[in-house]
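note to self: the first set is below, dont mix up w the second
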Amino acid sequence: MTDGNSKLWALVITVIITLSMSIGIVWYNHSNKGLEFKYEIYDKVEDFEPPPVDNKSENIPPSKDDSRANVKRVAIIIDDLGWNKESADALLNIDAPICFAILPHLPFSKIIADEAGLKHRDVLLHLPMEPYGYPHKDPGIKPLTDDMNKNDIEALIKDYISEIPHIVGINNHMGSKFTENERGMRYVMEILKDKNLFFIDSFTTPKSLAYQTAKASGVKTARRQVFLDNEEDEEYIKGQIEKLIIIAQRDNFAIGIGHPHPQTINVLQKMVPLMKENGIEIVPVSELVN
């Protein structure tokens, strides 16, 4: 091989190695971005509101302080935690008992649950359930599906419960299809009743049977009224929190669900003090289950 050919081959090999490294870096960054932002996968349904409730029929427990029985109470749940610790830290630094709904088997699931539990925040297992469009519409973590039998459902739930310390209840991650399945939801409630856990119906479909099935099974339950951040826009989120306040003033309580988007955290940091100043008591969601 001539000296010229050797130099040419050396150049070709160098170009190939450089391109391979560049492709690898792009793939790595894209993969990590997918992991970091996977919490954005959730049912973006229209923000339909459950029907107004009758406090007597719903039997919502009164405020623990009898002198403040007429205080309007709001619970805020942040879903899809576990991918990113920074967002969880920012939520823990907000001076309000915001509830942490944590997905299992994620890089920071256990440590976030531990820190939230130590700060006396309600910790929920954010239980993946089958949405319409599955598997194309992927919850990111293996979900409960309509075709599972009782043993499959029980095994998966118990595995996920074991992954999240300090849990006091469960709410559904996605689940627009599974929560319409009365048989499947009944199996879920049997497990929750045995473990003395409550269920919050995220209400990702107007046909959800989760709330009714929980009540019929003797499981403490409640249902969200407002999704806070279907649009990742601070003005929109502010408007949704104002809507949550209006519902609380009407019904004496309201439950909102948001996600750890920077915009959501920014709005909560600004609005939590204002809510308190205006007579809204932010409470753990465990105070609002019946």
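second set (the one i keep forgetting abt)
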Amino acid sequence: MKLLSLAKLNLYLEIVGKEPDGYHQIESIMQTISLSDKVEVEPSDIPGIFVSSNISSLPIDERNLAYRAAKLFIEKFGWVSKGVRIILEKNIPLASGMGGGSSNAATVLIAMALMCGVDILNSILLEIASRIGCDVPFFLYGGTAIARGKGTEITPLPPLKGIPVLVVVPDVEISTHWAYKNIVLPLYPFKIPSILLNMLSKNSKIDIQELNRLLFNRFASLVFKIPKVKEVKEILESLGIESISLSGSGPTLFSIQEDKEKCDLLAKVLREKFNLRAFSVEFVGRLSGV
């Protein structure tokens, strides 16, 4: 079975507290986008879990979230054969704040669930997703959703679809651990504004300028100071892009656009003139087959 494994952006991300185990509590609005990896999951007559990828540096053992997803699924639900083969075709930049590894893990869970007749939103499957990583449960839902707690408490919203977004990934890796260690926790966290929730809860046309105005990421003040991120942000501003947001703990920058042709042109200029990893993508709902 072949499935698309979608990337995500954080339209809103605030740290609202810290739990006794050291994990931070967040409030976030996540959105899947059309940038995706491809994941193939097939039964194997050879016992074991076998992961391969087009990225040679990517771990293919238990350090890989897709491997862990398959292992935990088999432990809970069994499997249709002696082993499982997973092929990852990676297009989402690694360590970019777009959740590529978490998305791959969720996609493996979905594929195995479909082949075994397990409900994708089965409570046990959601528990497995939470054990793998904080972003994994969101990817079982896809589309537009609020994530609370450690990021594992998901409340779906009406999906935003077809809205163009310019995505640019600076050439620097930012450790999530480093970001949480260095961020100054707010004394008075910002709850998700009711005006933003009201906007996203309606099925009417979205005001892009208003949406851009309401986006927020607690890590932006920290990550925008990193030289390579700052440099890319300044390039975007020089092209007249005023609304620039951060996904996750970075380094991915994005700007929601009103016009798809303009978004395509901006991405082309950023790739060809500035040699940047730039993508013209769209908001999408759940993942789908290849």
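remember for set 2: The chain has two domains: 2-157, 164-282.
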